[in-house]
Amino acid sequence: MTVKIQPSTLHGNIFAPASKSSMQRACAAALLCEGASEIINPGKSNDDLAALDVIQKLGARVVKNEDGSLTIHSQGVDPVEDEINCGESGLGIRMFTPIAALSSKPITINGTGSLLTRPMHFFDEIFPLLGIEIKSREGRLPLQIKGPLHPANIEVDGSLSSQFLTGLLMAFGASVTEPVTIKVNALKSKPYIDLTLKVMESFGRKVTHTDYEYFHLEPQAINYEPQTYRVEGDWSGGSFLLVAGAIAGKISVEGLDISSTQADKAILQALKDSGCFLSIQKEVIEIGPAALKAFHFDATDCPDLFPPLVALASYCDGQTIIKGVSRLAHKESNRGLTLQEEFAKMGVEIILRGDEMLVKGSSLKGANVHSRHDHRIAMACAVAALRSNGEVAIEEANAINKSYPDFYAHLKKLGATVLQ
To answer: Mean pLDDT, to the nearest integer, of 143-147?
Structure first.
């Protein structure tokens, strides 16, 4: 699908989408309970739908209620099929694989798209230490596993992703019978672990940590308890809306919790540093254009912000420096190179220098670009197009369905000219 975005002035009010990070973790926690949990404001992205499919194959029953909420009935992990497919969700594959290993039934773990080429070697290294049999395709999907998982004191590498740690914490939380500690080296994306711990605690499962290096789990009488859980608004998707307002017209964005533990809430600091109009209130964020200036930003703990930050930096006077490029290699695309190549088509010069990305502000021109099947690249190009001097056509624009299927509709609601 090709979508064309024409230069537009935005105005009006919009609600941020539901957070897939929050939604997927809530699905996992509800699966690990015995009883019925209610999920309010559930997401509907491809990653969210994949998570719902996974928990049903692992034994849960999902009921959609008239008010749009979901009721998840579960008696814990008890697979009803011998294969689960996490779609193209990196969180899904890394979180649900340890959870699936709680069962003694053999099960195949699979995915689609770029997930088939992303490294999964940590499963091969760690699972045998937990009593889990595993076969992989030289550290790639599909994985064939057979539990049950036996929690143990282990040491893991947190430098590539925090998502595997999320899966271990949630699975250990359901099965520890004596105190266990996970030692984590060089943990990245700490805010995502904060979100994991927050969701686990919402479902009654407490975990403590020492400086994000040692995570401690104690036995509990009841590990996970059914809850009514409201899925947060998504700072990842919301960041594109906020950047759109900063460059293309004053808008109001609702549904983003300023006390959230989501890593991408850090977009607020970049927006402040860029000099845009920004008013942060309890229920709404108002944002609009001003004389934008270059900024410095460390995205090491929030690498998903690179695409919206590049769109913002493209309109800032001067050279913006964004740190954390090393976190981009194993996303849906190699995002550092992809951003450099696709934004070059619109006239933006991006230099990759070690762990830094340098973005030179410019006047953007109309162009034909490609999402590279990456949802965040598609959204970044669409946002950047809003103040270009001509139409930007985005090929494979339906990549947005992975995280934010209503994105183009929301741009239209705010007054953008979007041709589909």
So the answer is: 98
Strands 296-298, 277-280: parallel, antiparallel or unpaired by DSSP?
A: unpaired
Distance CA 201, CA 195 (A): 10
- Among the listed residues 48, 301, 304, 374, the single catalytic one is 304
Q: Which helix H or strand E contains 359, and what residues bound it?
A: strand 356-360
Give the C-alpha separation, 289 to 138, whole Å. 49
CATH 3.30.530.20, domain 20-227, yes or no = no
CB 140 within 8 A of CB 167: no
Q: Where are the domains of the chain?
A: 3-17+233-419, 20-227
The whole-model pTM stands at 0.93
* 180-218 pLDDT, tens digit each: 999 999 998 899 999 999 999 999 999 999 999 999 999
CATH superfamily of 3-17+233-419: Enolpyruvate transferase domain (3.65.10.10)
Q: Quick one: pLDDT at residue 118? A: 87
Q: Does an H or E element contain 185, and which?
A: strand 180-185
Strands 251-254 and 284-288: antiparallel
- Residue 377 Cα distances to 116, 384, 410, 418, angstroms: 19, 11, 17, 17
Catalytic residue status for 53:
no
For Cα atoms 70, 72, 74, give the angle at the middle one, nearest 5 degrees.
180
Question: Is residue 274 scored above 70 in pLDDT?
Answer: yes
